[in-house]
Amino acid sequence: MNLVAGQVKRRYDVTGRREAADANRRAILEAAGELFTARGYAATMMNDIAERAGVALDTVYTAVGRKPALFLELVESALSGTDRAVPARERGYVQAIRAEPDAGRKLEIYARAIGDIHGRLAPLLRVAQTATHPEVREVWQDIAHRRAANMRELAQNLVDTGQVRPGLDVEEIADVVWATNSPELYCLLVEDRGWPAERFTAWLADTWRRLLLA
To answer: A Pfam family matched by this chain, by name (predicted)?
Structure first.
């Protein structure tokens, strides 16, 4: 084999291994999500996840990690809408909000994004609500704290438009949005009260406009 052919083969081998690893990871996360939501966190064993995914148990640990890491990855995937964690500032809807000059339109964009995110996140909330393991509560609390920090950025972005109600400051706006964009509220209205997701999205945008904008 000449040098060029060897380089091509090595690149092919690396690409093939990476694609196989990505496929295994996706299968593991899909299996974990199905089992967590069907059985609950405590009743789902790592061996069960490996069997459902069609991989060896060692592959589960290598590709994702222990059970708390699996749950965290599922939450991150639900937030990003991909099979990977994506920082908030790099998500498409965040960039669209920042580029939009009108405060009402910013809130509409965010409400649509929240509807999509919580449609994916709601089953995991049910898992977290019934789990007694501290690592699950820690994951959920960390996500809540991150949401609060992100809401301060959104609130400042709204204030900068000059279109918010007089007397509202960044902290109050952030807290109001943080409370009303929670997955718990989505589950109460959409899952428990039977609202269509589209109705929830429209109501959320309208509520924010009424509460926050002049």
So the answer is: TetR_N
